[in-house]
Amino acid sequence: MVGFELVQYLSQRKVLVEEALGQFLPLAEPETIYQAMRYSLLAGGKRLRPILCLASCELLGGRLAWAVPTACALEMIHTMSLIHDDLPAMDNDDLRRGQPTNHKVYGEAMAILAGDGLLAYAFEVMATQTPAQVQPAQVLAVVARLGRAASASGLVGGQVMDLQSEGKPIPLTTLQTLHAKKTGALLEVAVVSGGILAGGGTEELGRLSRYAQKIGLAFQIVDDILDITGTPEKIGKTIGKDVAVQKATYPSLLGLECSQNLAQQLTTEAKTELIGFGERAVPLLALADFITQREH
Hints:
By secondary structure, this protein is mainly α. It has helices spanning about 5-25, 30-40, 50-60, 65-85, 100-105, 110-130, 135-150, 155-165, 170-195, 200-230, 230-235, 240-245, 250-255, 255-270, 280-295; strands spanning about 95, 100.
């Protein structure tokens, strides 16, 4: 990966995604709900999911433009999950991406509706804004995968398991299933969707899927670690929440050092899935390392 500037790559892709998000979601009537949706959607963040989608599309020879609507849809759904996670009935958080959470600014009812609006609009953007060069069957396959990842089979199911596990001892296998749904499902569909839009075959998509599953778990382990070692200024949200509500985490079950080692092991395994793609895989390889080494 000599000569590849990850910081520059992330910066350029983030600008691309954020410009597209602003264009896809302009202010409209009723203005309050659009303001609430834009407040959280345009609040910054790493934009990791859309960047992974764009990178995997390019990996298999696709054009960025083919994947931009899906990349933005992924960020809309991710933002929905953050808005809803922060609600008093869920994680009851006051800070997200370094600013007050949506319900603190717009009220609980409007925050719920803002999340609902983003979820529905994500699918409209994919269906109407994906360029005609992408085959309808490919768009439909991505829509189906993203719908499953966002449903009770994925993100919603993981959140349910998370809520039901608070204050209870759970085995490591249950924690892994929980996070495979809550965090991993959306990360996996981000990577695989880009490959589908580029016309990837079964073997290529399988490798992308396994890569994504491993970095998804590594991402969550690092998230758990940062809840202990991070600061609100660096990570942009309240720290120590997991300990406060007695949530099972990787550090609580394995210890801090073992958790760090496991995240690194998963990253190494993820990168082996990309052997054979050559120089085209450099961004995804660098992103795998970024997930493990990040400080926010």
